[in-house]
Amino acid sequence: MTRGGNGKPPTKPRGLTHEEFEALLAQLDADRDRAGERYELIRRKLIRLFEWRGCDAAEELADETFNRVARKLKEGTKLRSSDPYSYFCGVAHLVYKEVLRKCSRERRALETGGWPPPETSFEAENPHLECLRRCLDRLPRDQRDLVLRYHQGGSHIQSRQALAGDLGIPLNALRIRVHRIRRKLEACLDEGPAH
């Protein structure tokens, strides 16, 4: 079994079939162990890249990048470079731009009172987002607006400091409030889409 750089087998991103994952590893290197190591190295770099850009869901975005690369490989694209990270990085840039557009749409919708924002094709493919929307709608408006504002903005540190300033509370108190709201959301999400 292929081992990653940390001695454990690389974890297959959600949304990839076993065949797509195997094809991806085969493109990274003919040797299974080296392929696993390259996979883990690229994944760590992508996570750091998304974190550096201020994304909260860096691991999920790295997995989405791998999913898109795997689909391109299935369509016949070949990784020709000796360092395929540059290709992954290009795809990651496109994923990041989509995140920025989505945040911008949600911020505009929040500012104009147009909640929930219109569904995009990515959201239509993901049934969990509809459940999240329902759970957000169950929250009192002030809590929903707070958690949405907390997770929006290009520079999370600056936007969260501004949010704490608007509320007249320290940043740590803001984090605690949002954590409590997120626990409510998680409990609602655990109930599943039927509720």
Low-confidence stretches: 1-6
Number of discrete domains: 2
Please trace the helix and strand order, writing H or E for each element: HHHHHHHHH
Mean pLDDT: 78
Structural class estimated from helices and strands? mainly alpha
Can you walk through the features of this model?
With 195 residues, this protein is an all-alpha fold. It folds into 2 domains: 1-102, no CATH class; 119-195, Winged helix-like DNA-binding domain superfamily/Winged helix DNA-binding domain (Arc Repressor Mutant, subunit A, Orthogonal Bundle). The protein is 70% helix and 0% strand. The chain has 9 helices and no strands. It has helices at residues 18-28, 32-52, 58-74, 85-112, 121-125, 127-138, 141-150, 156-167, 171-191. Helix 1 crosses helix 2 (32-52), helix 2 packs across helix 3 and helix 2 packs parallel to helix 4. The longest helix is centred in the middle third of the chain and has 28 residues, at 85-112. The radius of gyration is 19 Å and the shape is elongated. The N and C termini lie far apart (41 Å). 16% of the residues are buried. Mean pLDDT is 78; it is low at 1-6.
Keywords:
single chain; 195 residues; mainly alpha; Arc Repressor Mutant, subunit A; 9 helices; elongated
Mind sketching the topology for me?
Layout: H1 18-28, H2 32-52, H3 58-74, H4 85-112, H5 121-125, H6 127-138, H7 141-150, H8 156-167, H9 171-191
Helix pairs in contact: 1-2, 1-3, 2-3, 2-4, 3-4
